[in-house]
Design goal:
With 192 residues, the chain is of the alpha/beta class. Helices cover 31% and strands 20% of the residues.
């Protein structure tokens, strides 16, 4: 049985922030990507892609899922994604992996998930401004992507680093192949 990975989609999500990770995971026979929206209705990404999701929030069976991926987008900054608070906190409380990039880090910061874990975002001041309940300033790392326990965070300019951390968490590739993938997509270097 394939391990399920949820990707939350919403109108205006930053499509490029998941564009490196989804093809690689999709190629694997060990995982199934499940794209979902709050109501199962089609959405349009920031780049104008019209997407029909696989599922709605109501159809998610928590026990069947291993990871939740939250792409960025301006909607997080407006605080309009409250519908997935319960799912996200349930993932956190049960030690399942949550991966958030760009503005999605403000969402999990606001929920208190980052308070006691090393993490990053677009900028510390940005995170504090958008997430007034965030209290993790001493754990903030000025890095492109950070993994601590089951939480993966990334700066919005780091979709490749974000993908690499997700691949590590999933053991998608061995160490050598992961580094080859990273060097190819980050630096244009291929070592066969």
């Amino acid at each position: 049985m394939k391990r399920k990975i949820l990707i939350f989609l919403f109108d205006g999500f930053s499509d490029w922030e998941i564009s490196y990770l989804t093809p690689e995971i999709n190629k694997s026979e060990d995982f199934e990507l499940v794209y979902f929206t709050k109501d199962g209705k089609p959405i349009t990404s920031m780049g104008g892609l019209h997407i029909t999701p696989d599922s709605s929030l109501q159809q998610i069976v928590f026990e069947e899922v291993d990871m939740l991926i939250l792409p960025g987008g301006e909607a997080w900054e407006k605080g309009v994604k409250k519908e997935i608070e319960k799912l996200t906190t349930t993932f956190f409380e049960n030690g399942k992996t949550i991966a958030a990039i760009c503005a999605a880090t403000t969402f999990i910061g606001e929920l208190g998930i980052l308070n006691n874990l090393k993490h990053t975002s677009n900028d510390l001041n940005y995170l504090k401004a958008i997430a007034p309940n965030y209290r993790g300033e001493t754990n903030y790392q000025n890095l492109l992507s950070v993994t601590d326990e089951n939480i993966i965070t990334a700066n919005g300019i780091a979709p490749i680093e974000f993908s690499k951390e997700i691949f590590k968490k999933l053991s998608l590739y061995n160490t050598e192949d992961l580094e080859k993938w990273f060097q190819l997509f980050k630096n244009g270097i291929w070592k066969g």
